[in-house]
Amino acid sequence: MSSRDRILGRVRRALADVPPDDTPYEQAVSRDYLRHHGDRRVEETVDLLAENLVDYRAVVHRSDAEGLPGLIAHLLGERGSGTVLVPPGLDESWLTETEVTRVPDRPDSTPHELDRVDSVVTGCAVAVAETGTIVLDGSPDQGRRRITLIPDHHICVVRVPDQVVSSVPQALERLVPTRPLTLVSGPSATSDIELDRVEGVHGPRTLEVVLVSGA
């Protein structure tokens, strides 16, 4: 018996004497909260996303589809990256102007191997303007969760405006809950009781977000 089976067995036994709920799930919890705050034009929503990302100490860039390969090459060169981790479904055209050695997303890569990679480039599933949050769901252009948690430098491309929404409720409508969701609000950071901020504790120390239009 697996650990999963044991846990589910305990849950079933704990619920054995609980009477069935006659209230449909959709009606059991009130959903009358605001789905988003205020009415914004598309451009204003994208600007709010950029503002909140910067507030979380992410570095925000803007580009069009034509300029994206050159921008990514510039960011990798500016970083001095010798290797870049590439998810299997990443758009090949994004890396046509960089000569950095590409590292594939392999199932058998160890944490030590991933830690030696200089940068990782991914897409995203959706971006939330009101919270400055990027959501990854393990799709082919994003790869396995660990490739965005171990390397110290993450370049994340967000397609504007298709992948930008105002609020978390709007984002959740686009996501599949069974996928490995990772919500990223700025680079990894933590603070101790004296509020001394330390970055790169459980994720990349540097997050660069590229808002690309016309992709």
From TrEMBL:
Transmembrane segments: none annotated. It holds the Pfam family LUD_dom. Residues 109-212 form the LUD domain. InterPro entries: FTHF_cligase-like_sf, LUD_dom, NagB/RpiA_transferase-like. This is LUD domain-containing protein.
